[in-house]
Amino acid sequence: MKQPRAHRAGTRLRPVLAALVAAVCAVTLLSAPAQADNPIVQHVYTADPAPLVHNGRVYLYTGHDEDGSTYFTMRDWRVFSSADMVNWTDHGTPMSLATFAWADADAWAGHVVARNGKFYWYVPVRQRSTGQKVIGVGVSESPTGPFRDAIGRPLVGNGEIDPHVLVDDDGQAYLYWGNPNLWYVRLNADMISYSGSPTRIPLNTAGFGTRTGDPNRPTLYEEGPWVYKRNGTYYNVFAARCCSEFIAYSTAPGPTGPWTYRGTVMPTQGSSFTNHPGIIDFAGSSYFFYHNGALPGGGGFTRSVAVEKFTYNADGTIPTLTMTSTGVPQVGTLDPYVRQEAETIAWGSGIETEPSGEGGMNVGWIENGDHIKVKGVAFGTGARSFSARVASATSGGRIEVRLDSPSGPVVGTCTVTGTGGWQTWATSTCPVSGATGTHDVYLRFTGGSGYLFNVNWWQFSRS
Ligand code: FUB
């Protein structure tokens, strides 16, 4: 269970598993060299994945389950990004309920599309004046935000949730959403208005499978439509049946149907009674994002996003996928000779992130024994030094640079002294030897009791 923990700048809930995760990992690492990379994020609970490929990176938009939540208590959304599918950079909270002055709750499952040189984030929220679920739209010039309310009011609303947008090859965009129904409306090219009226997609068993035991809901369709086009076929992948949900899909010859039910993508698994699909192609492979309750303290209201790689069958059908803790293979390697954000993480143990005074985010709340794993770091012929941008309002500590496990060989140790503030930054540099070839790097933090220091970025040097 997560516990409230006093924070130096006020009281804050620390996701915290920290100790639990550390213990689980330590045991795992003693018995096997491979470490889990699923779920993707360990320092906050994430839900309802919406991946977007843009300019050679995957941007992963998620909801955020509050620590200790016993309902879908969700107040903001999060963004992470990756160039290699295993090391994910935390970009923080670029949109929240506060973005929409007319909304007061339920920052639930959304979807982001890029168009017109902008990024549009369609989200379900509760409208304060009516208490009804409606669809809002945020907009930003950057995939990492900040996002602002695009129109100052709901885009559309009928009490239903989970918007998703398909921009078809002819430029026509469709907004889909719904639970218990499935709706679409044609968006205008501005992406913030629509033409015509919302139309209900007929939910019949040929199109969406047969549900038993609920006369009000004869088909399997529940929520979370993810609609895309591949090789001329339109796919609608959705959360099926409730509860517990599984992921199913239907296909159609056009964006509005008629739909044919095709079966299961991911069976019910993983300690969460909901699931939520997100599918992309990236760097020549296909990826399926989903959520489960796999982190310590995880469950139906404390979920975490994970990802699996898959290959479509020759006939275009989607194979049945199983949740794993291993995650997906790395795409390429990570270059340690360019500045890397400390919040670019394959697996974090005990740490949190926060906005940095130097821009972006930094890693914080570091205590003795915490660590960050960065996967597949390509040192080549060898690194000679390591630098880290650090800040400490206390007396600092040390950064041990280890290879391949938290207890692997130490190739360098940097000392961090007090800098006079948690956002008073200095660069600490130390010699490195023995770092050649490609390794997982573990930055292991040591020192006395309490919070030691923050880290904003790090970089190795060949000289
Ligand atoms: O996260 C809140 C709701 O749970 C989402 O809108 C649904 O898709 C389900 O995952």
Structural classification: mainly beta
- Cα shape: globular
First-last Cα distance? 46 Å
**How would a crystallographer describe the biggest sheet?**
6 strands, antiparallel
Query: How big a fraction of the residues is strand?
Result: 35-45%
- The gyration radius over C-alpha positions equals 23 Å
**Which hetero compounds are present in the coordinates?**
beta-L-arabinofuranose
Q: Mean pLDDT, as a whole number?
A: 93
- Percent helix among the residues? under 10%
How many helix segments? 2
Regions with little confidence, pLDDT below 50 for 5+ residues: 1-34
Total strand segments = 35
If you had to describe this structure to a student in words, what would you say it looks like?
It contains two helices and 35 strands. With 463 residues, the chain is mainly beta. Strands 3, 4, 5, 6, 7 and 25 form a six-stranded antiparallel beta sheet that branches. Strands 8, 9, 10, 11 and 12 form a five-stranded antiparallel beta sheet that branches. The protein is globular and about 65 Å long. Beta-L-arabinofuranose (FUB) binds at residues 47-48, 63, 72, 108-109, 161-162, 223-224, 239, 274, 276.
